[in-house]
Amino acid sequence: MGYYNHKKKEIYVALNSLTDEQSYNIVETVIHEGRHAYQHYALENPEIHPDHKELELWRKNTRHMGGVYLSPMYDFMYYYQAIERDANQYADQK
């Protein structure tokens, strides 16, 4: 439904998902992708994030930082990656 482009620092949402029935999912997607933007910013500015162990997990899971990132199209472990798990938990907060 959407993704974050780190190089351009932009969040993309698929236009075909902009329907009334999907409005909650769109908001959740923007929050999820916004968390990815924060994760990348925190990796580049570690002083803003208090949990340095979490930063190291994110770093190991971020391709542009030399880590390994699994694609959702090819690996079911995608959902268990540190950055995806964190972004999902963040978006699910009430």
TrEMBL record:
Recorded superkingdom: Bacteria
The name this protein goes by in its record: Uncharacterized protein
